[in-house]
UniProtKB/TrEMBL annotation:
Transferase found in the keyword field: no
Identification of the protein by name: M23ase beta-sheet core domain-containing protein
Parts of the chain that traverse the membrane: 20-42
The keyword Chaperone appears for this protein: no
Superkingdom of origin organism: Bacteria
Signal sequence bounds: none
Species in which this protein is naturally found: Paenibacillus marchantiophytorum
Keywords: Membrane, Transmembrane, Transmembrane helix
Pfam families in the cross-refs: Peptidase_M23 (PF01551)
Length: 467
């Protein structure tokens, strides 16, 4: 017999019934292993979406009689039945059997929501319902709890046909939901974040009352009476822009509102100007004149326009971008306790010729005196410049910068983050300077504004001038 070819051997195997039986058993076994492992895997690690969409999975069966509930915050709460307690840690997306003791505010260490923040929003969250519509049926309400004017829960009676007796709303009770879907969960988390943002903003005002006044108004001017050389902080409750002295200022989001600084240039005419639904009053202000004598060598410095222009490019670039939030929380401090030799706004004559308006303060101090950062910020520029010598620009966010000039030494570099009071350099007399002093000013949207407004305060705490 000639040996069978490989092909012949394989064909004979294919016709064997034993082969087919074994193959079938093997396939069935393999399939059940796959199904078993798959189920294990998905049960152990459900995705967030699955959890959010299947709240009823672990919800107590509805034949249990729900007595009451309490949400401690946007995440944690409990639901008590006659025969036990369920608790949630994700706003009701998932409920699990709890220990005998109920979780409480004391246990989690905080209140459901901060009453002060709700007060600032003018929120009334005491609405208690006696009945509500869900689906096409009206249910009697056993208990209601709102955390904000949008987010609330209601425990309903006659819930036999419902997956859960605890319904949730994200629109102040206009519509109710029988499960915490991923969309509902997102709305709850967005509301939680809104309160966090509001709280952050509110903390910057002088008092709870002034925070409340600003947060509940359409437009707020801090302050509404001003003068040339000043700066005003504008808050609006919606996005938008402000047109001011021929320029457009975009309102930038921060906290619960939208903000911009409005610099009042030295050329601004006294009068009353509408800003949104408010009126900005600009009062007349008189500035003194100063006569300065310098050496012929110093006087000629200002003629090197090439170097001056090259420096100006660096400065413009540094001030062209600013962090999109207020970087400070506490008050601004004076960078040094020097002797004020030139106040802000002096019209300056150098060697008998008109030079410029001095839109900064000069504080004389001993060479080497440490200079503090006026407030928290980012070093936008720390460089040796021609006219202003060793110079620093600090970005305080939202278009506000502080400037320090004529330093003997720089102690920071561009890009550094600094805290209020950090030593950023030393007093010197570098650049166009007649002796050791600090030339200091603020820039709001590239306009030099009066430092006197900032000492021991912040724009959020600015009040109307006393006349
Ligand atoms: Zn100066």
């Amino acid at each position: 017999m000639k040996p069978r070819t490989r092909h012949e051997r394989r064909s004979s195997l294919l016709y064997s019934p034993k082969y087919w039986l074994l193959l079938t058993i093997f396939c069935l076994l393999a399939a059940s292993i796959v199904v078993f492992l798959g189920r294990q895997y998905f049960t152990l690690t459900p995705t967030v979406e699955q959890r959010a969409e299947q709240p009823a999975q672990t919800m107590a069966p509805v034949h249990r009689d729900a007595l009451d509930f309490h949400m401690i915050d946007f995440e944690q709460g409990w639901l008590r039945y006659s025969d036990g307690v369920m608790k949630t840690e994700d706003g009701g997306a998932q409920w699990l059997e709890a220990e005998a003791s109920l979780p409480s505010e004391a246990a989690v260490g905080h209140e459901a929501v901060d009453e002060t923040t709700l007060g600032m929003l003018g929120m009334s969250i005491n609405q208690q319902l006696t009945s509500l519509m869900f689906g096409s049926k009206t249910y009697p309400v056993k208990q209601t709890q709102f955390l904000t004017d949008r987010i609330g829960w209601a425990l309903v009676g006659e819930a036999g046909a419902l997956q859960t007796p605890l319904l949730v709303t994200t629109d102040g009770g206009q519509t109710w939901n029988g499960e915490v879907t991923s969309a509902i969960r997102a709305a709850i988390l967005a509301e939680k974040e809104r309160l966090v943002q509001l709280k952050k903003e509110a903390a910057l005002y002088a008092s709870t009352d002034s925070a409340k006044a600003a947060i509940q108004s359409e437009w707020t001017l801090l302050p509404s009476t001003s003068a040339p050389g000043d700066v005003v902080l504008v808050r609006h409750n919606k996005p938008g822009k402000v047109e001011w002295l021929g320029k457009v200022y975009n309102l930038q989001p921060f906290g619960g509102g939208y903000f911009t600084y409005l610099p009042i240039t030295m050329q601004a005419k006294p009068g009353k100007y509408p800003i949104g639904d408010q009126t900005l009053t600009i009062q007349a202000k008189k500035f003194e004149t100063q006569y300065l004598k310098v050496t012929a060598e110093m006087e000629s410095m200002k003629q090197d326009t090439a170097r001056i222009n090259a420096d100006q490019k660096k400065i413009d670039l540094a001030r062209s971008k600013s962090e999109p939030e207020f970087l400070f929380s506490g008050p601004f401090v004076k960078p040094i306790e020097g002797i004020l030799t030139t106040p802000y706004g002096y019209t300056r004559y150098v060697n008998g010729k008109y030079d410029s308006a001095h839109l900064a303060v000069d504080l004389a101090a001993k060479e080497g005196t440490p200079i503090k950062a006026a407030n928290d910020g980012v070093v936008a520029l720390a460089d040796s410049l021609y006219l202003t010598g060793n110079s620093i620009y600090l970005d305080h966010g939202m278009g506000l910068f502080s400037q320090y000039a004529h330093l003997s030494e720089l102690r920071v570099k561009t890009g550094d983050r600094v805290k209020q009071g950090d030593i950023i350099g030393l007093v010197g007399t570098t650049g166009f300077s007649t002796g050791p002093h600090l030339h200091f000013t603020f820039w709001a949207h590239n306009v030099q504004v009066n430092p006197d407004l900032f000492w021991a305060t912040t724009p959020f705490r600015w009040v109307e001038p006393k006349n």
